[in-house]
Amino acid sequence: MRTRLHNLRIVPDGPEVGGPDTIPADLLIEGERIVAVAPPDQRPAEADELRLDMEGQLVLPGAIDGHVHFDDPGFTHRENFETGTRAAAAGGVTCVVDMPCTSLPPVTSGANLREKLAVIAPKARVDYMLWGGVSANAMEEPDWVAHLEEVVSEGVAAIKLYMLSGMETFRDLDAQGLEQALRETRRLGIPVGVHAEDRNLVLEITRRLIEEGRNEPLDYAASRPAAGEVSAVSTLRTLCRRTGARIHVVHVGAGEALDVIAEARGEGLPMSGETCPQYLEFTEEDLQSQGALLKTAPVVKTEEDRERLWQGVANGDIQHVATDHAAGEWPAEKRTGSIWTDYGGVPGVELLLPYLYSEGYRRGRISLARMVEVVCAAPASFFGIGGRKGRIAPGFDADLAVIDETDGWTVRAGDLHNLNRYTPLEGRRLAGRVTATFVRGVRVYHRDAAGEEFLEPAGFGRRIRREPA
Ligand SMILES: [Zn+2]
Question: What separation in Å is there between the alpha carbon of 212 and the centre of ligand 1?
């Protein structure tokens, strides 16, 4: 049977040419796929066609959050796949890409990957991909390269590496390990995402500040200076030249680190960068007032950094915006009495699209076309699913986020859907509101004046594999 989504607006697909932000359209869906995108009622109706009036709302490709920590299995007091994907569905995110380091076992071998999949598959409400990883722990195994080959052949989205990790179960790589891992990923033709902060610099400052008895949010900020990001990204640029590995720097927070990535791209090196709403929105002043609630790694920085990051999202220096969704147990793990032991991370998957739409597009910082590029098309292409997700076009999965542009709402942590509900955006008024989310042609989430509803059971979400180039 065919479904016609009628009376909606879409962002014109293709390069930005200074035309209108949105155009009216009909979307025709058969099964899981979009079969046609056409001017309203240009295509004749079929006899058994189901017609849904979208009442002039904006319909975007479903967002892909390329950086989430859903902690399942192993750390499910923080998040789990059911609550994490529930929040995703409510926020117009139709595919999440879960990190390999915050589950037990970590995704560092084929057996570990299958163990994780068996646990999360019955819980997923939207589609999902898994990152694989190489940690210092994994490299202690003599057959770590074979394990890496396994996770790549199992279709992981990309490979995560840490230059500085706080996790005992997924330790960071030293310089030699990092280069070895980059060479192997290059050989296997899979991109890497790197947490890029200078380990020695950060640990040295941290040790000194703790010795001095300092324990304020701004002391934590001082322990992770912009120079730590710049130094690590510069090292990656050198390693990129030397190994040819496809290197994606996750959660860029420092404007100068972004400058280094932009220079590297200017040289033709295969590097790219991701930033997150927290770095676009907040500064050290907010960290001072919000305390550990806004503690993340890297840490939020200055007004100049924020401006440079927004500029990067607008001009293409930043390729992806993702959330680094990482929720600590609230309040126990976020209010330990010491900024050094408080959990570092904020949940955000549900606010990714609402935030970018309201604070990016509606405030005139980025175009809708750029927004779709950084949360849909570019991540899809990076994760090897650019032929089926990330665009509204014939043949693509009918993954859709519907936004009522005339509505608005106030963010309240208690109204969110992930497990531990706290947000540095508490009380923020956002323009626009997600009213429906479709995954592969099926409406999984719906909101109207009467309330909200999750229309499909957990387990509806499907695991998506990276497609060979
Ligand atoms: Zn992360």
Answer: 29
